[in-house]
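Q: I'm building a small set of examples for a reading group on sequence design. Run inverse folding on the following structure and report the sequence directly after it, with nothing in between.
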């Protein structure tokens, strides 16, 4: 198999394009070819395997991502997504704005056949019980058929990339009973329960307290709920680690205890490090896409590129469509919705 090429938008990262370029260099050491779109002057020289396309224009901070993508054809994320659409790259990675990446993906890479809405999926590194959450911000308002598709997309991804043989899939709701939740959640529950079997195991509803308890491998929700849940979990885990550090350094006794626990605490920190996940995956497009967090270091960007390449190798797009077709969950007729109607978060 020829080397996989990943188009990477270097603009928008908190640490600047040079840090994204350093991550691209690390990924190139693993055999991935990278087309890096960003300001040549800020990136500088790169090693073999990384080709820089000078693209200094960034729309990472644009208030209306869809409008910015349509009106700024020379933006780095637009050029990167076009490289994927035209076949010059096999996958897309964004180091900047989630909204711009989603809009560029929808306009240029396009939704896969039969997909209602794209979904952002992220693997939360919960110790002993990692869980895939989707949607975490692509589609704020959804219908039952969207949630059903998210369930099958998440299951296919968990199989292909996370190695879960028969993923347990749940809906996030305000109670475990089938009749709890919004009308859309209740309707999606009925459809998923009726179609139980095949490549996934539907385990029903879970509450927020169960998400990190290992009762499901994939948890499905609308993008509004998912985005809030994700940021709340990130905020709580970050605050907890900072509090542990502060307590361990506040007194001689605490410092002594901290020294004794340094190894286990460092291992825990590494286990829950969000950079290990590589960012959020744009499911439902015709090609693989990954949105890295803007605050990532080169390690996180390298991981994002690696997992995008793995998605290509494992044919995540093809396996997702196959799972949806087998379940009868593909859209049967073209939707009247325009891609621009999806407002990424």
């Amino acid at each position: 198999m020829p080397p996989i090429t990943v188009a990477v938008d270097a603009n928008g990262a908190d640490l600047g394009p040079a840090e994204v370029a350093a991550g691209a260099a690390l990924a190139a050491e693993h055999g991935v070819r990278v087309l890096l779109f960003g300001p040549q002057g800020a990136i500088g020289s790169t090693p073999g395997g990384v080709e820089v396309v000078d693209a200094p224009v960034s729309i990472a901070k644009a208030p209306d991502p869809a409008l910015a993508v349509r009106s700024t054809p020379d933006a780095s994320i637009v050029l990167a997504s076009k490289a994927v659409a035209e076949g010059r790259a096999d996958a897309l990675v964004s180091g900047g704005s989630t909204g711009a990446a989603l809009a560029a993906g929808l306009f240029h890479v396009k939704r896969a056949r039969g997909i209602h809405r794209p979904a952002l999926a992220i693997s939360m590194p919960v110790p002993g019980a990692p869980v895939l959450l989707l949607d975490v911000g692509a589609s704020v308002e959804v219908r039952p058929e969207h949630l059903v598709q998210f369930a099958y997309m998440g299951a296919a991804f968990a199989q292909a990339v996370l190695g879960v043989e028969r993923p347990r899939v749940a809906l996030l709701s305000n109670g475990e009973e089938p009749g709890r939740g919004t009308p859309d959640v209740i309707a999606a529950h009925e459809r998923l329960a009726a179609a139980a079997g095949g490549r996934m195991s539907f385990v029903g509803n879970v509450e927020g307290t169960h998400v990190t308890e290992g009762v499901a491998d994939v948890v499905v929700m609308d993008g509004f709920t998912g985005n809030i849940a994700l940021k709340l979990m990130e905020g709580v885990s970050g605050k907890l680690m900072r509090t542990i550090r502060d307590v361990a350094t506040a007194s001689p006794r605490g410092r002594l205890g901290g020294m004794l626990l340094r190894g286990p605490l460092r291992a825990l920190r590494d286990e829950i490090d969000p950079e290990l996940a590589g960012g959020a995956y744009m499911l439902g497009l015709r090609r693989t896409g990954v949105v890295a967090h803007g605050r990532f270091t080169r390690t996180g960007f390298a991981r994002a590129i690696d997992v995008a390449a793995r998605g290509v190798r494992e044919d995540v797009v093809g396996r997702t469509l196959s799972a949806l077709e087998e379940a009868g969950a593909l859209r049967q007729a073209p939707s009247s919705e325009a891609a621009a109607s999806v407002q990424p978060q």
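Residues 168 and 216 are 5 Å apart (CA to CA).
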